[in-house]
Each structure stands twice: as structure tokens, then as C-alpha cells.
Design brief:
Number of domains: 1
CATH class: Alpha Beta
CATH topology: Mannitol-specific EII, Chain A
Shape: globular
Number of helices: 6
Largest sheet: 6 strands, mixed
Helix content: 40-55%
Oligomer: single chain
CATH superfamily: Mannitol-specific EII, Chain A
């Protein structure tokens, strides 16, 4: 999996301000639809909220990985936010979240989509990457750090 195929530079936002988990998901849904303008950000937001109802997508260590399935989508699309201040995400470790990787995947998952989900979750678990992402001072730096 090449991250560059899933996430584009204009889908990365550094130093975003979110008042809450819900507000963070709103921002994320707007970033996710940038490369798919035919999809309404409200639909993505509802999909992300619905997925959170099934179980928290907080991965621990200040990272969350909200994702949802989307009708009419041909391939996985990602977005990344680094929050200026961490928000409560109901993570199992109780730690507030400041790194949020969002993903929308086709309604019918293919093997490559499932592999992308697993690879991204594993990648976000790397301590060195989290440190590098948190050190980024611009959206371009954040994108470059993620894809390096």
C-alpha cells in the first residue's frame, strides 16, 4: 500500500482546532470529500458518527483512526489532522487525541481496502512516526512526515 495513493496533500491539516470529538469528525469529513466532490461531507460525517457508535476508534497514545464505508466510492481515501489541542475521544487508554487519521472505504470492501485499514492502523502505532507527526509545524510537513 502506498499512502500517496490514499491521501493527498490537500487532505492534511496541521494545527487544527476542534472543540470536541464531534467537531473533529466534522473537520475530518470535509477533508475526506475534497478529492470526491460528488460525495456530501454530511454523509461522511454521519458515517463516521455511526462507526463511532459501534466502538471507539481511538487507538491509544493520542491517536484515533475514524473510518466508514461509502456507497459509490471506488477506492480508499484518507485524511490526516493534527490538532492544536488534544480532545477526548473516549480512547481505551483515557488519553486525549491529537492525531486523527480518517479513512473512507468502498461500501463493499476488497482485499486491498482491508489491507489498507490494517496497514494504516499498524503504521499509526509506530512511536517514531507519532513523534515526527507531532513535530510538524505545517500541513506540508505533516504530509511529508506521514508519507516518508
Amino acid at each position: 500500500m502506498l499512502l500517496e495513493e490514499i491521501i493527498k496533500p490537500d487532505s492534511v491539516l496541521c494545527n487544527a482546532h476542534a472543540r470536541s470529538k464531534k467537531h473533529c469528525l466534522e473537520i475530518l469529513s470535509e477533508l475526506l470529500v475534497r478529492s470526491n466532490p460528488d460525495i456530501a461531507s454530511e454523509d461522511i460525517f454521519e458515517g463516521l458518527i455511526e462507526r463511532e457508535r459501534l466502538g471507539c476508534t481511538g487507538l491509544e497514545q493520542g491517536v484515533a483512526f475514524p473510518h466508514c464505508r461509502v456507497e459509490g466510492l471506488d477506492s480508499s481515501v484518507g485524511a490526516l489532522i493534527r490538532l492544536s489541542e488534544a480532545v477526548d475521544f473516549d480512547s481505551a487508554d483515557g488519553e486525549a487525541v491529537d492525531l486523527v487519521f480518517g479513512l473512507m472505504v468502498p461500501a463493499v470492501l476488497h482485499d486491498e481496502d482491508q489491507a489498507s485499514i490494517c496497514s494504516i492502523a499498524k503504521l499509526l502505532g509506530h512511536r517514531e512516526l507519532r513523534i515526527t507527526l507531532r513535530d510538524a509545524t505545517s500541513s506540508n510537513e505533516l504530509y511529508d512526515a506521514l508519507c516518508a
